[in-house]
From TrEMBL:
<keyword id="KW-0804">Transcription</keyword>
<dbReference type="InterPro" id="IPR036388">
    <property type="entry name" value="WH-like_DNA-bd_sf"/>
</dbReference>
<dbReference type="InterPro" id="IPR052362">
    <property type="entry name" value="HTH-GbsR_regulator"/>
</dbReference>
<dbReference type="InterPro" id="IPR036390">
    <property type="entry name" value="WH_DNA-bd_sf"/>
</dbReference>
<protein>
    <recommendedName>
        <fullName>MarR family transcriptional regulator</fullName>
    </recommendedName>
</protein>
<keyword id="KW-0805">Transcription regulation</keyword>
<keyword id="KW-0238">DNA-binding</keyword>
<dbReference type="GO" id="GO:0003677">
    <property type="term" value="F:DNA binding"/>
</dbReference>
């Protein structure tokens, strides 16, 4: 095995473990996503490519591809006259937009929590929780600002890449 191929296999495994542990993906889905990230620069990978590469059953690969599509981690395209789907990673801007949805919902919860605590906090512990919640909301707002900036940068890069093709 060449050094580059070995490095690629190790990267796929590292990505796989990361996606399993921090994104709660099943092991096969995590490896499929990692493979698609590393092997799909421009052309995408077919279902058949992934079945062969993963060494897993068609049913297992299909189930995990559907999960990755539902999670917005991957996308696919088709070619005229070709019935195959070509899978590739979703653009970074789209994947990061999912984090924005989470932040938006968290802000709603925090606003309700703050309004509730401001009306009901009577003991020292509850007043301390109120201050912690305010500090956490400030953190969430800073994360939103940073994420918005990052998404805009990705959109610029993706737009530039699309115009160069």
């Amino acid at each position: 095995m060449s050094d580059i191929k070995k490095e690629k296999e190790e990267l796929i495994e590292m990505f796989g473990i990361h996606f399993e542990n921090f994104h709660n993906m099943p092991p096969l889905g995590a490896r499929i996503f990692a493979t698609v990230i590393l092997d799909c620069c421009s052309t995408g990978m077919t279902f058949e490519d992934l079945v062969e590469r993963m060494g897993a059953s068609k049913s297992s690969v299909s189930t995990n591809l559907n999960l990755l599509l539902k999670l917005g981690k991957i996308t696919y395209y088709t070619l005229p006259g070709d019935r195959k789907k070509y899978f590739k990673p979703s653009p970074f801007s789209e994947r990061f937009s999912n984090y924005m949805k989470m932040i938006e919902f968290e802000k709603i919860i925090l606003d309700r929590m703050l309004a509730y605590r401001e009306k009901t906090a009577v003991c020292i512990a509850e007043k301390g929780d109120l201050e912690k919640t305010r500090a956490y909301k400030e953190h969430v707002l800073q994360m939103e600002e940073l994420l918005t900036s990052t998404i805009n940068k990705f959109k610029e890069i993706e737009k530039s890449k699309a115009s160069n093709q």
